[in-house]
Amino acid sequence: MNTDKSSEYLIGLVKELCKLPQETGWVEFKEDFANPEDIGEYIAALSNKASLDGKFSAYVVWGVSDGAHEVVGTSFKPRIAKKGNEDLENWLLRLLSPRLHFRFYEFDFEGKPLVLLEIPRATGKPTQFSGTEFIRIGSYRQKLKEYPDLERELWRIFEKTPFEELKAMERVDTDQVLTLLDYPAYFDLLSQPLPVDREKILDRLLEDQLITKNEGGGWDITNLGAILFAKNLDAFKGLARKAVRVIVYEGNGRLKTIREQQGCKGYASGFEGLIDFINALLPRNEVIGKALRKEVPMYPEPAIRELVVNALIHQDFSVTGSGPMVEIFIDRMEITNPGLPLVTTDRFLDTPPKSRNESLASLMRRAGICEERGSGVDKVVFQTEFYQLPAPIFETPEASTRVVLFAHKTLNEMDRTDRVRACYLHACLRYVERNPMTNSSLRERFGIEEKNSAIASRIIRDALEEKRVKPHDPEQSKKYAKYLPFWA
Fold first, then answer.
1. Cα 209 from Cα 222, distance rounded (Å)
2. pLDDT(287) > 60
3. What is the pLDDT of residue 2?
4. 411-488 adopts what CATH topology?
5. Helix, coil or strand: residue 318
6. What's the rounded Cα separation, in Å, for the pair 370 and 361?
7. Which CATH number does 7-161 carry?
8. DSSP H or E stretch at residue 30
């Protein structure tokens, strides 16, 4: 049961809802009727209707008569209600898709018990209950598929309303804004002096759409403001699961966890701390120089920075219940984010940048955390080549995007798959630099001596057989041969 809103706020909200006309599609009044299946269908229907009507939330209020909107009280107790042997809230959450962070509030109004159910608007896709999408039509809930015009309109709204513009928290006062958001970090990252006047601070946050004015007074904190500058993402119910998880495992598998930690700060204000935390957990290699022994990180920090920031800004926020994750094994490091990439993984190096979260990427770029020029993956491949690490893998398991960095291996320790993948990415990197791959450049990539050029030739031959690269000129001589990625 949630108690994060004051009784005064809830009473004021109910008063405003009671003033609405009976046909309002995003509000439902009940007395004691509380059938679990009906509640689930109402959540889906009202969630979808709230999106159609441009509302931040929809509501069901128990204890108010449906006709005259008079406060009569209710005997409904969601805190103890069950469906079978399962708590009502857990049962509803399990059957809703996507998972919604709805909230029940129990409070007294003029000495009478009321229950208010707050339902977030649908985002990204229509809300379903038990596999069916519902919509509110007048005072009735209906199956959405029976109203194709409304279904099309709902999808148009999802397409034109970016995640960043949606509200993470509604109707908060100035003190709450300045308490919830790390505004000093905002000014620091943008190299701007921190205003002394609170109104000027709010003006700047408003200008960058970290907050917006609420029509009923006060402020709304947008998803953009919360996800980038929250002091604690747990304060924003819909974004808590979007915090970055870092997990360290023993050995090469996931059987035993050594350490697991979930971040709490916004992506921008917490980015440097996140990178420092990851680097502190990574294994290190001992390098023996001419006079000294020193330890160096197993993975180059520039590559880690690029991959982590890419996971943050390119994730699909409509995928609920999961967020970016960094997993560290003894022989590799995996960085995963929800959502499939907007371009095929084979074309990460050469395709112009595409961001599904443009406002987020733009502000991260202004803060000096990321680039929007599409060169991030180029840097990752360059760093792995410079340190002669195995080539990274870019893959898409279970509707997510994952990049795998590998610990150092000698050329003899790499198998054919490792070598061909490295050859292909080397050809891609050379192509975007407008300088085709050659036997000589591949030798340099692997650290192969010139006298062993036949080894590089064999790797190129394997890549040609697997159709990962192709000759720059079909008539070229082997001595001066150049090669391109297969798609060039």
1. 7
2. no
3. 45
4. Arc Repressor Mutant, subunit A (1.10.10)
5. coil
6. 7
7. 3.30.950.30
8. strand 27-30
- Map out the domains of the chain as residue ranges: 7-161, 167-237, 243-345+356-408, 411-488
**Phi, psi of 171, rounded to the nearest 5 degrees:** 55, 65
Closest CA to 463 of 426, 436, 432: 426
DSSP strand E in 289-331: where? Answer: 293-297, 325-328
Q: Which fold is adopted by the domain 243-345+356-408?
A: Heat Shock Protein 90 (3.30.565)
Give the separation between CA 365 and CA 361, rounded to whole angstroms. 6
pLDDT digits (tens, 9 = 90+) for 41-98: 999 999 999 989 888 789 999 999 877 888 999 999 999 998 988 999 999 999 998 8
- Give the predicted TM-score (pTM) of the model: 0.74
Listed residue (164, 169, 233, 177) closest to 203, CA to CA? 177
Residues 6+ apart with CB under 8 A from 101: 120, 237, 238
Specify the pLDDT at position 1.
44
Of residues 306 and 373, more confidence is placed in 306
From the CA atom positions of the chain, what is the Rg in Å?
Answer: 27
CB atoms closer than 10 angstroms to residue 285: 13
pLDDT in tens, 438-454: 999 999 999 999 999 99
pLDDT tens for each residue of 381-434: 999 999 889 999 999 998 899 999 999 999 999 999 999 999 999 999 999 999
User: Which residues lie below 8 Å from residue 14, measured CB to CB, with a gap of 6+?
Assistant: 61, 64, 71, 109, 114, 116
Give Cα 86 distance to the centre of its chain. 30
DSSP-derived pairing of the beta strands 27-30 and 57-62: parallel
Beta pairing partners, 149 = none
Helix axes 36-52, 148-160, angle to 10 degrees: 60
Counting beta carbons within 10 angstroms of the beta carbon of residue 141, is it exposed (0 to 12), middle (13 to 18) or buried (19 or more)?
buried
The residue assigned the tokens 């409304």 is: 150
Give the distance, in angstroms, between the CA of residue 454 and the centroid of all CA atoms in the same chain: 45
Element (H, E) at 164: none
Structure confidence at residue 479 as a pLDDT band (50, 70, 90): confident
H helices then E strands: how many in the chain? 15, 24
Residues 115-132: tens digit of each pLDDT: 999 998 888 789 999 999
Question: Strands 245-249 and 284-288, how do they pair?
Answer: unpaired
Q: Which two three-digit tokens encode residue 103?
A: 């909230």
